[in-house]
Design brief:
It is built from 13 helices and no strands. By secondary structure, the protein is mostly helical.
Length: 266
C-alpha cells in the first residue's frame, strides 16, 4: 500500500476522489434538502448519451458528457418548474432516452473499442491529467457559484414561497441548481461512474443531515464522510483486487445502513 501511494496513478486517483468528495458534499446537500435525488439521477443517466455522441463523432467522451449534462439539466429544470405534476414521468423518459441514445450510437460506431464499464462504474485508477484539470475547473466553478448564492439557495431549499416574496429569483436559482448538478455529474463520473453518481451525491449528505443544525455544517460533515468513504473504498479495491468505484459505494452504503440501524435502536 505504501509503495502504491508513491505511484503517479494513485496520486491522480486520490485527487479525483477529493474533488468528487468536495462537489458531492456541496451539491449533494442541496439535492437532499430539496428532495431531488431522482432528478439528479435522471441527469446522470441521461448524460450517458454524451458518451455515445462523443464516440460516434470522434471527440473526447468527457466533453460529450458535459454538453449532454448541461442540456439535460436545463430540460429537467424547465420540466420541474412548468410541469411539476408530471415531472417524474418526464424525468423517467429522459433518463431512458439518454441511456438508449448512448447505446445505439456506440453500436453504430464502426470498430469502437471503448471501455463502457469505466463510464458506467468509474475508472478512478486511470484518471488522466487532462481530465483532472477539467474536474478541477468545474469544481472551482461550483464552489464559487454556491458560495455567492449560498443564502439564496438556502432560502429556496427551505421556503421557496417566502424567498419569492422577498424578491429572490426562485426560477433562476432553480435552473442554476440544476446546472450545478449537471456539472457535478461530470466531476463524479470518473470516480464512481454514471450508474453510481446518485449514491455518492446522496448518501453522505443524508447521514450528515442527522447531525447538522445548518446546511453549512451538513456540507462539512458530508465532505469528511466522502473522503473517508473514498479512502476506505480505494483500500478495499486494492486489497480485494476489485473495481474502486463500486467499492467506494459499498463502504458508503454500509455506513448508511449502520447509521440507520443505530438511529432506529435509539
Amino acid at each position: 500500500m505504501l509503495e502504491l501511494l508513491h505511484m503517479h496513478f494513485m496520486h491522480n486517483a486520490l485527487l479525483a476522489a477529493c474533488l468528487a468528495g468536495i462537489v458531492c458534499a456541496i451539491i449533494g446537500t442541496f439535492v437532499v434538502i430539496n428532495r431531488i435525488v431522482f432528478i439528479s439521477g435522471g441527469i446522470a443517466h441521461t448524460a450517458y448519451g454524451g458518451v455515445g455522441l462523443a464516440v460516434y463523432f470522434g471527440f473526447a467522451p468527457l466533453l460529450g458528457i458535459t454538453l449532454v449534462s448541461i442540456l439535460a439539466s436545463l430540460v429537467m429544470a424547465w420540466v420541474s418548474l412548468k410541469a411539476r405534476n408530471r415531472a417524474d414521468t418526464m424525468i423517467g423518459v429522459l433518463w431512458a432516452l439518454g441511456m438508449a441514445l448512448g447505446v445505439i450510437l456506440l453500436d453504430l460506431t464502426p470498430g469502437y473499442h471503448v471501455d463502457l464499464m469505466s463510464f458506467l462504474f468509474g475508472s478512478i485508477m486511470t484518471v488522466p491529467g487532462n481530465d483532472l484539470w477539467l474536474m478541477s475547473g468545474l469544481a472551482v466553478i461550483i464552489l464559487c457559484t454556491v458560495g455567492y448564492f449560498y443564502h439564496d439557495f438556502v432560502a429556496l431549499s427551505f421556503d421557496p414561497e417566502f424567498a419569492r416574496v422577498r424578491g429572490i429569483p426562485v426560477g433562476f436559482l432553480h435552473v442554476l441548481l440544476m446546472l450545478m448538478i449537471g456539472l457535478s455529474v461530470v466531476v463524479v463520473i470518473q470516480v464512481v461512474g454514471l450508474i453510481l453518481v446518485i449514491a455518492l451525491m446522496s448518501i453522505s449528505p443524508f447521514i450528515a443531515e442527522r447531525f447538522s443544525p445548518s446546511p453549512l455544517r451538513m456540507m462539512g460533515i458530508s465532505l469528511g464522510l466522502n473522503l473517508i468513504f473514498a479512502l476506505l473504498g480505494l483500500l478495499l479495491s486494492i486489497c480485494l483486487n476489485v473495481s474502486a468505484g463500486p467499492s467506494i459505494i459499498l463502504v458508503a452504503s454500509l455506513a448508511f445502513f449502520g447509521v440507520q440501524i443505530v438511529a432506529s435502536s435509539r
